Amino acid sequence: MELVFISAAFISGYALMRCHLPPLVGFLIAGFVLHAMGYQSTPVISQLADLGVTLLLFTIGLKLDVKTLLAKEIWFGATAHNVLTTAFFTLALMGLKALSIPMLSGMSVSEMLLLGFALSFSSTVFAIKALQEKGELNATYGTLAIGMLIMQDIFAVIFLTATSGKTPELTALLLFGLPLLKPLLGKLLDKAGHGEMLVLYAVFLALVAGAGLFEAVGIKPDLGALILGMLLASHPRASEMAKSLFNMKELFLVCFFLNIGLSEQPTWQSFSFALILMLLLPIKGVLYYWIVNGFRYRVRTALFTTLTLFNFSEFGLIVGGLAYKTGLMPGPILVSIAIAVSLSFAFSAPLNTFSNQLYGWASRWLPERAPDKLHPSDQQINLGDASILVLGMGRIGSGAYDELATTHHQPIVGIDTREDSVTRHQQEGRRVILGDATDPDFWSRAVSDGNISLILLAMPHSHANTLALEQIRQTQFSGKVAAIAKYQDELDQLKALGVDEAFNIYQEAGSGFARHVRDRFSHPDS
């Protein structure tokens, strides 16, 4: 049976990908179609789905800077949105009940409050996928969205722990000693190598030391995976560990989305109520925009944060399932939540795909603050006397920067979206500033005293390089542009957009290695 599920997921996911929609929407559709054909989820699919979510939270922890959560716009923004959205949905449901909506006829105010709380959350899984596919996980709005989602995950874990009926064991107090193990965990990571032992160590930390340990003392397992990841977030190899889990995590998350579609049988009544919930979703988005914009972020940042979080969450299904088991929520309502979550994913996916076009339209109507009134992380960018720009200061961008600084002797400025990366490069003597080169406003906000003649697109995700190139071409830039890519189709796309030079990083690495060997051994005395 699992072979049928895998085949259906591949066909549906591939079809949606060709339609320029995230494959996860196809996985959801495949689940609903399979359920309509009489298929049910299996223990294997359910377990793999749970593993996918656990590994996802672990990798989120690996990338989480705790200082981010301490920012007022994160902890206060997430809390304010949760309270306001829960209140709105509760009042809306009470109004719908007064209008004699059959699905709500038997629900009490406390039950509607619980449903409103479930609907107030946004999907961590969807947001991470959308940001990864756009290559903007570290963009300003991406950091805001992930920070608010982490706060929501914390709210969720607290709620589930309090209502699970399980009292944490007295031994749970020992978990406060976990930070003492951080040096040991870091040393083991240093010795884990770069192959299968690195992957195995990551799985051990997420599922055994994290989820297994927390479950053993009566606390929700996913919280353990998140915290273990956070303990290693500051380690130099944390990013490498997260990347080593990427394919495994993605495969398991396919099962997660399939499982949602396979969970319940939709009815016309439950589908109708799900559509009503979808009509209420825009208010949730308006509250996101109002809160983020209130912290003096630009229109684009507030709008993109809103679009990333503009959905219902799979957590709504978890809350609904718990309420259903305890008799606090009827079965048809649970089905409606499942449908609403899926519909919100299908609705939100194209909005995120065409977010730049939406911003171009909305920016004409939404008022922007004066540059000096904006949040410090969203203000103008001073490029100084730069003649060469390097966009993306990862390993490739840093290497290109150093080589050009040695050979060309022209002013060079690097641009990176990660604040910690910018700080590190500045400490090492490079001129690097914080900025998002995929931002349509980036070039209009940039102030330059020099004549920029060369731009290098060195961001790790080809989609991000493509977006940046599109923005560069719109500025009528007359200099040269060079870009990197991993695959031939990405090279072809960059060349079609008019890049002057496009390089395959794998091929260039091989050529560079051959040149190094030739130069090293070309002399008899070597």
Automatic annotation (TrEMBL):
GO BP terms in the entry: potassium ion transport; proton transmembrane transport
Main location: membrane
Lipid bilayer topology: Multi-pass membrane protein
Domain RCK N-terminal span(s) in chain numbering: 385-503
GO terms under cellular component: membrane
GO molecular function, one term: antiporter activity
Organism this protein belongs to: Salinivibrio kushneri
Family membership noted in the UniProt record: Belongs to the monovalent cation:proton antiporter 2 (CPA2) transporter (TC 2.A.37) family.
Domain of life, source organism: Bacteria
Record field: transmembrane: 21-38, 44-62, 74-93, 113-131, 143-164, 198-217, 245-262, 268-291, 303-324, 330-349
Subcellular location: Membrane
A Pfam family recorded for this sequence: TrkA_N
Protein name according to UniProt: Cation:proton antiporter
Coiled coil segments of this chain: none
Record keywords: Antiport, Ion transport, Membrane, Transmembrane, Transmembrane helix, Transport
Alphabetized PROSITE patterns for the sequence: RCK_N (PS51201)
